[in-house]
């Protein structure tokens, strides 16, 4: 007779506390860890971890599987990267609560903000819910390869209460604020992990309209925060440009919200290339709130934030050219033939000299910050490998160099164009951000921007690049594991996971650390309605375990789907 459901034998454990690595075995029964150390009893199933790293399952607090989770049991690419718990509903976008008349509006918002094909959402979503609680009920009925938690999105909430007036960015009345407060409290009681809002001009619908929450008043935000206080649970996730004359003004409002509600809070933080030192000021403001006793963190990324451009992707550097727009709807094969025509090439190169109308468009044609992605991909490429530097060496126009690269490789080449966290052509700013005790590892956007980015692979970058591969400034592996596990779990109230210790949820990774790495992203047309998405696999994950069941071995699914919906904060058993 076996003594345990599962035993992980002979591994080197990074237990999530950040303390040193140690040799230990892990025993599991009924989905919980029951022993760590020398385990004499046998398991019904055993995993040989000799020479391998054993960690808690990774917790990703910033994903956008809100649509995919309703039709798909495998939340890839995240589940390929050791993620055993994902939190979605970020950036103020999602699909509940919703009235039937507003379904298309929420799809347009998600398509615009998160680059998820509208056709895929229209076909994939069955809309068998109206309230947020009903949406959670739908999510709960589907087994998955990981646990999933959801946040209440401000955009959906505002449209549900205010209708067309929300889209016109009108101010909520006292009665509407009271309704939002009640709906928020109910969503938290039904199992929301928190609430998210967006105040950035970069977030727009597919039609170009601003996100409905852009100008929400302090009174509205306070009402929602008090709804969370009424329920006694939930964390607030906040995205803003902080473009007011002084960001202190907006942080003063945040201070008042947190003082009134007492809820945990996180805000997105990255280095803008136009203001390379501006992130320090914002992090200082976060530290100031923490000094007042608020539970506040900044979500940061372990590598550059940028896009992948290519003929298979949603855009190329010439997407704004009139001649390219006329053929952009054609297949990759058809566009390749057109682009190889010397006359068309000359026309595009001439049109690409025209001034660009937006800052974002200009960022995406900064040839000195455009790099061939490569295989394996390099997310800290040297400056001299940029297309701009190559063009100078060859005495050519960088547009010509980029154009020629796009039509090589039968159109499968990707250009990596970072627009944040790479002002100095290195990731030193990311290192500084990650080292702050007031930050969390987030912003990976798993399930979103599916035609432009592949950042659901952040957890693998965090461990492989920062713990092993970086030429200088490598970070302690145990500390990196803690950042992706216990720290993130605690930030969203999931106190039952993130540690390899008795009593904790048996979510684990068994990793061949020497072989851990990223494969190049590939485009797949496997979403509903034939929608495309970038998928990126990893090497080195020997086993991923959720609630004591092995879900992946060497990157391949075992068939086990033990993942469940997480309803609200969780206490250690």
Provide an overview of this structure.
This protein is α/β, with parallel strands linked by helices and about 575 residues long. It folds into three domains: about 5-55 and about 505-515 and about 540-555, Urease, subunit C, domain 1, CATH 2.30.40.10; about 60-70 and about 85-305 and about 425-490, TIM Barrel (Alpha-Beta Barrel); about 315-420, no CATH class. It is about 30% helix and about 20% strand. It contains 20 helices and 24 strands. The strands form five sheets. Strands 1, 2, 3, 4, 5, 17, 22, 23 and 24 form a nine-stranded mixed sheet that branches. It has an eight-stranded parallel sheet with strand order 6-7-8-9-10-11-12-16. Strands 13-15-14 form a three-stranded antiparallel sheet, with no helix packed on it. A hairpin with a 2-residue loop joins strand 23 and strand 24. It starts with a strand and ends in a 16-residue tail after the last strand. The mean pLDDT is about 95.
Q: Helices, strands, pairings?
A:
Layout: E1 4-13, E2 22-29, E3 32-37, E4 43-48, E5 53-56, E6 58-60, H1 68-71, E7 83-88, H2 103-114, H3 118-124, H4 132-140, E8 147-153, H5 154-162, H6 164-167, H7 174-190, E9 194-199, H8 218-231, E10 235-240, H9 247-261, E11 265-268, H10 278-291, E12 296-300, E13 305-309, H11 322-325, H12 332-339, H13 342-351, H14 359-363, E14 371-372, H15 387-394, H16 398-406, E15 415-420, H17 428-435, E16 439-441, H18 458-469, H19 477-484, H20 486-491, E17 508-511, E18 517-518, E19 522-524, E20 533-535, E21 538-539, E22 541-546, E23 549-553, E24 556-557
Parallel strand pairs: 1-4, 1-5, 6-7, 7-8, 8-9, 9-10, 10-11, 11-12, 12-16
Antiparallel strand pairs: 1-2, 2-3, 5-17, 13-15, 14-15, 17-22, 18-21, 19-20, 22-23, 23-24
Helix pairs in contact: 5-7, 7-8, 8-9, 9-10, 15-16, 18-19
């Amino acid at each position: 007779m076996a003594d345990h459901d599962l035993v992980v034998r002979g591994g080197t454990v990074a237990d999530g506390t950040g303390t040193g690595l140690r040799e230990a075995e892990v025993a599991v029964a009924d989905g919980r860890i029951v022993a760590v150390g020398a385990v004499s009893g046998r398991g019904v199933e055993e995993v040989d971890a000799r020479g391998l790293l054993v960690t808690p399952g990774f917790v990703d607090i910033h994903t956008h599987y809100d649509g995919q989770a309703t039709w798909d049991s495998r939340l890839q690419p995240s589940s390929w990267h050791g993620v055993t718990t994902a939190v979605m509903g970020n950036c103020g976008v999602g699909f509940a609560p919703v009235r039937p008349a507003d379904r298309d509006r929420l799809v347009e918002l998600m398509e615009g903000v998160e680059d998820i094909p509208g056709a895929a959402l229209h076909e994939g979503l069955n809309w068998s819910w109206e309230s947020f609680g009903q949406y959670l009920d739908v999510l709960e009925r589907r087994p998955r390869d990981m646990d999933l938690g959801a946040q209440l999105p401000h955009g959906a909430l505002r449209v549900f209460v205010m209708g067309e007036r929300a889209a016109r960015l009108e101010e909520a009345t006292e009665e509407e604020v009271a309704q939002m407060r009640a709906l928020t409290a109910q969503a938290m009681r039904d199992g929301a992990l928190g609430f998210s809002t967006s105040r950035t001009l970069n977030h727009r619908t597919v039609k170009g309209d601003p996100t409905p929450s852009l100008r929400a008043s302090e009174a509205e935000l306070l009402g929602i925060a008090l709804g969370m206080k009424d329920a006694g649970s939930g964390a607030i996730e906040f995205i803003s440009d902080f473009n007011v004359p002084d960001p202190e003004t907006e942080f003063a409002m945040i201070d008042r919200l947190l003082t009134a509600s007492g809820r945990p809070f996180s805000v997105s933080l990255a280095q803008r290339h136009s203001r390379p030192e501006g992130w320090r000021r914002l992090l200082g403001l976060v530290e100031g709130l923490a000094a007042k006793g608020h539970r506040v963190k900044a979500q940061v990324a372990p590598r550059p934030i940028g896009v992948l451009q290519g003929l298979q992707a949603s855009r190329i550097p010439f997407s704004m050219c009139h001649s390219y727009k006329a053929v952009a709807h054609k297949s990759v094969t058809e566009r390749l033939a057109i682009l190889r025509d010397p006359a068309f090439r000359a026309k595009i190169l001439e049109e690409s000299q025209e001034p660009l109308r937006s800052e974002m468009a200009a960022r995406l044609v900064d040839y000195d910050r455009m790099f061939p992605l490569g295989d394996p991909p390099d997310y800290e490429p040297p400056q001299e490998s940029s297309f701009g530097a190559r063009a100078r060496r060859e005495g050519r126009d960088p547009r010509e160099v980029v154009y020629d690269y796009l039509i090589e490789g039968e159109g499968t080449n990707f250009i990596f164009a970072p627009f944040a966290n790479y002002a100095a052509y290195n990731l030193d700013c990311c290192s500084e951000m990650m080292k702050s005790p007031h930050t969390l590892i987030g912003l990976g956007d798993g399930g979103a921007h599916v035609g432009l980015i592949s950042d659901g692979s952040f957890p693998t970058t965090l461990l492989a690049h920062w713990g092993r591969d970086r030429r200088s400034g490598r970070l302690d592996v145990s500390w990196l594991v803690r950042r992706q596990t216990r720290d993130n779990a605690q930030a969203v109230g999931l106190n039952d996971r993130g540690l390899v210790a008795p009593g904790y949820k048996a979510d684990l990774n068994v990793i061949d650390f020497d072989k851990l790495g990223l494969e190049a992203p590939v485009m797949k047309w496997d979403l509903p309605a034939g929608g495309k998405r970038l998928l990126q696999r990893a090497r080195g994950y020997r086993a991923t375990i959720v609630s004591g069941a092995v879900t992946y071995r060497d990157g391949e699914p075992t068939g086990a789907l033990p993942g469940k919906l997480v309803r609200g904060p969780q206490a250690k058993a």
